[in-house]
Backbone:
């Protein structure tokens, strides 16, 4: 078993709820595939996911690149990370301060799996916005308005 999935040697079963932002402490959580995974802070990320995340950042599709151009450099007043690894999966664009995840879906996405992932994140206090690639091409201003409105709403909470 890889060390990042191995439970700590002492205090098993006394962990707080899964929260990937709790740097430096051992946390545990159930992921949709039913496995219990142990993570030691944010530093221990699955090396395979980290590599895939880096590859995705280098080879973003056109819709993701177009959206990233608008949301990078705090243009909404908040910082987004692209292809951010959390909870054993990769988020297209994550705003950690507001717990906002923006996903860009192409034709290859499985709606049932996406629904499970959204429910998993929402149960942990995250808000998920999903847009189809064609929406970014045809209605880019509407997509940006939706993201901006959600950011304003989350700031008021």
Residues:
């Amino acid at each position: 078993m890889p060390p990042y999935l191995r439970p700590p040697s002492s205090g098993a079963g006394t962990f707080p709820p899964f929260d990937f932002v709790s740097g430096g402490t051992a946390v545990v959580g159930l992921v949709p595939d039913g496995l219990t995974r142990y993570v030691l802070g944010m530093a221990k990320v699955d090396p395979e996911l980290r590599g895939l995340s880096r590859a995705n950042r280098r080879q973003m599709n056109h819709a993701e690149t177009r959206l990233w151009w608008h949301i990078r450099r705090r243009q909404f007043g908040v910082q987004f990370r692209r292809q951010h690894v959390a909870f054993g999966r990769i988020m297209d664009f994550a705003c950690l301060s507001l717990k906002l995840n923006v996903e860009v879906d192409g034709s290859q996405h499985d709606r049932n799996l996406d629904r499970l992932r959204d429910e998993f994140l929402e149960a942990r206090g995250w808000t998920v916005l999903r847009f189809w690639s064609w929406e970014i091409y045809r209605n880019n201003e509407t997509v940006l308005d939706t993201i901006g409105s959600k950011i304003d709403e989350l700031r008021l909470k």
Remarks:
- The first helix runs from residue 47 to 58.
- The chain has two domains: 1-44, 47-156.
- The helical segments are 47-58, 62-71, 111-122, 133-138, 140-156.
